Amino acid sequence: MSTSDSRTTEIHPKPLVTARYSLAPNGLLLRREPLPPTKQHPYVELVRANDISLPVTYDSHTARDTAAQLLGYARQFYTQQSLPPTLPVDLLDPNSHNATTSTWTLEAGLDLHYHAPFDATLDTEGTTWELTPALATRWGRALLTLAAVLDHAHAVATHAVLADRCETTTIDNLTDWANRKIEDDDNDGYWPILRDLQEALAEEDAFLRRQTLIAALDIANPDLSTTLSGLHLNAAETLTHLDAAKAIKEIADHYGIPLFMWTEEHWWLARYLKVGELTEAEWRRFTSTLEIQQFPLCVEQRQQDGNGIDFELALKQAGLSCRACSTRIHGEIAATYGHCEACLPSDRAEALAEALERGCPAEPFDRGLSSHCGAPGTACYVCGLPLPTASDNVQR
Description:
By secondary structure, the protein is α+β, with helices and mostly antiparallel strands. The chain has 12 helices and 13 strands.
């Protein structure tokens, strides 16, 4: 969500008199007692129950109602006039924003939070504030922006639910129509146009599916150095293949996907090109050549010829396959020592000693304890087996 201060909305302002107010759990300001005339500004207090602060949560309705109270008070203070029927108000950009959350800092120790899709809360370090006109104005503008965000979230959710219940999309319906027309013998003259429409719909469907996936990854990874949505929408204008590679690698590392990529920064190209020598258009032209497109096939062929990854060894390194008989095993290495139940000695000390002496699967099995990597008393950072301390009987 990105709002602009030039965007405005209208409210029906509500007056606040000089008094002490409680902040209800739904965010509304509830008048409790009048204040003496010397008090220039109203005070707001957070309602407490059994000395525990109540959470203050908003929906779009209470956010707008509270904003009307706050902005009505600020308007009256500044103009010393009765309130108009409606009041135009600029929306307020959040101080921080990512794929799942937005935060408006109202003043020190007072923050308004939105967490997708429908959670909106007020976070406070204190219990009492002097409601100055400046605070009331900022708070009210933030609440109106929050209300717009919540309304939009509900509209998106409603659209998604209805589309899911119908089990078809507009693109699905148009594609079905185009397919029927293509099969109709009476439409031979329109066949090229219908075929173009069919291809365009397929491309649009693929585009929307990519957008859905990218948005889902953004939500799962709100702290990525660049948002995937922004990368997808702006790559042709602002971002480079190096930016794309960094974001893809970050996602791959997070989800444990083995991935190898090369860019113009890779040493393979150092003897041919300098970094930045190619424009992005030239880079895409280079990587679209038949020779470069053969790269995945070269990797596949190497694996097929038996010169690639040893997956059986990887399973043993991960403690998912028995080191002795290769049977699939379950449980943590610290419990199984990399053995199935049939191959695991009943004596735990003996089992660990045997597993350590058998060696780390990352090295030849005859290298014994010295094949493991890690400090004494820790775990081998390759295979995960617990390593003995210096005082243990098992010696390197």
